[in-house]
Amino acid sequence: MNLQQRITESETRIFKAVFPNTTNHYDTLFGGAAMQLMDEVAFITATRFCRKRVVTVSSDRIDFTQPIPAGTIVELIGQVSSVGNTSLKVQVEIYIEEMYSDVRLKAVHGSFTFVAIDEHKQPVRVLAEEIQL
Fold first, then answer.
1. What is the layout of strands, in order, in the sheet containing 104-117?
2. Which of 8, 32, 90, 94 could share a disulfide with 42, CB 3.0–4.6 Å?
């Protein structure tokens, strides 16, 4: 399998309903709840990509461009955007879908960096050498 096939096959999509217990006093999704969902999707994406233990080492520039109201459906999409020796970067987007219409808007975009580790928590190569060529 080549690198592009691995990236394509590791793309992760998760849908969630936004319920009132995850919203703030404006009746929109808490930013921290959105970030938690994004980190989870990024983790799954990174793990599916390299099939190794990974840990989040940073989140970069998370842009909240639309509020996410209670009573909507969100789709989170994670995709590997770059691969280093021991680290990889995953882009995550959140889209809002109204439950009873076809309205769909991109609400949040962010980037997460992961490092692959061994059982002793030491960094290891993300991919075997033959795949990185």
1. 12-17, 72-83, 87-98, 104-117, 53-64
2. 90
What tens digit of pLDDT does each residue of 34-59 get? Answer: 999 999 999 999 999 999 999 999 99
Judge contact between 76 and 16, C-beta under 8 A.
Answer: yes
Whole-prediction pTM value? 0.93
pLDDT at 84 over 70: yes
Cα–Cα distance between 54 and 48 in angstroms, integer?
10
Question: Exposed/middle/buried for 75, CB within 10 Å: 0-12, 13-18, 19+?
Answer: middle
Residues sharing a CB contact under 8 Å with residue 89, sequence separation 6 or more, in sequence order: 80, 81, 82, 83, 111, 112, 113, 114
Q: Do 125 and 84 touch, CB atoms closer than 8 A?
A: no
Q: Are 57 and 113 in contact (CB under 8 A)?
A: yes
